[in-house]
């Protein structure tokens, strides 16, 4: 199978895609829209894109494109703790590091460590953590370092000299696997966190309590929500859609009846699937 | 007054801050956390940070820091349409442009224009649109171009040769003004879109229908929501808080009674303020 992912090579999304699809062909895309287009026109079977907290893409785009392409569904979700490592070329003299390269947000997320241990070393913004690692690998004669992930270290043959330099432990990124077909995605080597459903809900008009009415449908069935996010359709105007995650496996007709009830209330529902959530390694 | 903003110089956030605070001292910060710290420790009076759709910061961080710093409130919100312009040094021979620099997401957002008009020109990722503009200004002898905003063009004396090259018209970024004191922020020269309130709501436990109960409090009072977003507190665990916007001016006791009712339901509410929403120029 061909799997698109939000690039560049050695991005955090590739780190996720490589764990989700270890034996498939991975194809980097320059942005989230291109991942959706590749799935839409059939040039790939699936794509891996960030859903929450990525430093690589404006992830609200992911919700917007899910809304705009109703034939694209979610096959799986994956959570990855964010881990930044300090890496150098094997020839580097660590005591003489003169510059540290990374994406501005990765440098910011490692600020405390870098400020304590490399205060007088120049920190240089780069377009991505992966590109920073590549730049370090291409300049073995200078004493440069990059803040990037393990995948970048392996790809560019860099040596990790300090692991987990990020300031906060709880930071993580969520990814989804999108597809036009309903592949039954499962993975025997990854930790399964649970099942969930994804829904896109559009209210018939912007009236007070509209969302409350939607949630009533789930509440009396004791269907628990784990995520809810509203997205505006136009600047300054009162048109919204909502992305909702409902916890658990949908095995009885109770859950599917909820969708029917929403439809009778004139509420537009795009059911994105009932899928597994996996824990990835950082 | 001193106003912190998410930098670097000539970032989109500075473009917003300069319109909101034309006569104040603007101080760039390297990340969203530093904006919050500057407000918290009193080294600035207010800060401007992105709330939605920024290409410069992971804006979910803004919600997380609002949650972690309960004494920081919202003074105002501002919406800015995203506009990318193609700019060069005044000495540049436009027909001979050899490279176009910008943030990867700005290049992606201008893909259609660049592919149609500059297909054979190298597109080079840069850490920010502002840094790309600075690089072009520092290399007048080469024929370089940058995709950036009007503020960057003015700051670095670049000539805009093509305006509004972004692919989608409806893209916009939202910013908030944060402060520890309750300044009464108003601005006579900006278009006022309306009033809204911001609330952070934490449920006592992760039970089915908890959010539904919260929304009931607003629904029967005909208080309309314009934004709702859940944020996980820990990876994989069922602890959440919600950021909610309620539309309109809070002038009667009805609205404030809603907050009292939430508290009696053992629901933790951080009222971030009732503030104005402004429309900015791109």
TrEMBL record, chains A, B:
Gene3D superfamilies registered for this protein in UniProt: 3.30.70.260, Periplasmic binding protein-like II
BP GO annotations: L-phenylalanine biosynthetic process
Reactions catalysed according to its record: prephenate + H(+) = 3-phenylpyruvate + CO2 + H2O; chorismate = prephenate
Positions of the Prephenate dehydratase domain: 2-180
UniProt site positions, description: Essential for prephenate dehydratase activity: 173
Known EC number: 4.2.1.51, 5.4.99.5
Pathway info: Amino-acid biosynthesis; L-phenylalanine biosynthesis; phenylpyruvate from prephenate: step 1/1; Metabolic intermediate biosynthesis; prephenate biosynthesis; prephenate from chorismate: step 1/1
Matches recorded under Pfam families: PDT
SUPFAM superfamilies reported in the protein's UniProt record: ACT-like (SSF55021), Periplasmic binding protein-like II (SSF53850)
InterPro entries: ACT-like_dom_sf, ACT_dom, Chor_mutase/pphenate_deHydtase, Preph_deHydtase, Preph_deHydtase_CS
PROSITE patterns tied to this protein: ACT, PREPHENATE_DEHYDR_1, PREPHENATE_DEHYDR_3
CC per GO annotation: cytoplasm
Residues of the ACT domain: 199-274
This protein's UniProt keywords: Amino-acid biosynthesis, Aromatic amino acid biosynthesis, Lyase, Phenylalanine biosynthesis
Molecular function per GO: chorismate mutase activity; prephenate dehydratase activity
Task performed by this protein: Catalyzes the Claisen rearrangement of chorismate to prephenate and the decarboxylation/dehydration of prephenate to phenylpyruvate.
The protein's name in its UniProt record: Bifunctional chorismate mutase/prephenate dehydratase
Source organism: Chryseobacterium arachidis
């Amino acid at each position: 199978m061909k799997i698109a992912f939000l690039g560049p090579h050695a991005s955090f999304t590739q780190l996720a895609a490589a764990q989700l699809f270890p034996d498939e062909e991975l194809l980097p895309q320059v942005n989230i829209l291109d991942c959706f287009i590749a799935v839409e026109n059939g040039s790939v079977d699936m794509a891996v894109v960030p859903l929450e907290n990525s430093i690589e893409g404006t992830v609200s785009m992911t919700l917007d494109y899910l809304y705009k392409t109703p034939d694209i569904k979610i096959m799986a979700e994956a959570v990855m703790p964010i881990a930044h490592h300090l890496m150098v070329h094997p020839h580097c003299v660590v005591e003489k590091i003169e510059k540290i390269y990374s994406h501005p947000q990765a440098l910011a997320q490692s600020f405390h460590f870098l400020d304590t241990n490399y205060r007088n070393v120049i920190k240089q913004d780069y377009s991505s953590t992966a590109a920073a690692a590549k730049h370090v690998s291409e300049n073995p004669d200078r004493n440069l370092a990059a803040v990037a992930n393990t995948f970048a270290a392996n790809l560019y043959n860099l040596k990790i000299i300090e692991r987990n330099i990020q300031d906060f432990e709880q930071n993580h990124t969520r990814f989804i696997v999108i597809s036009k077909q309903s592949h039954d995605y499962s993975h025997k080597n990854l930790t399964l966190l649970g099942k969930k459903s994804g829904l896109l809900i559009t209210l018939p008009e912007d009236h007070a309590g509209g969302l409350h009415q939607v949630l009533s449908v789930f509440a009396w069935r004791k269907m628990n929500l784990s995520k809810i996010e509203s997205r505006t359709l136009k600047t300054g105007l009162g048109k919204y859609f909502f992305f909702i995650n409902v916890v658990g496996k949908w095995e009885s007709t109770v859950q599917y009846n909820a969708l029917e009830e929403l439809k009778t209330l004139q509420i537009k529902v795009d059911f994105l699937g009932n899928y597994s959530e996996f824990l990835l390694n950082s």
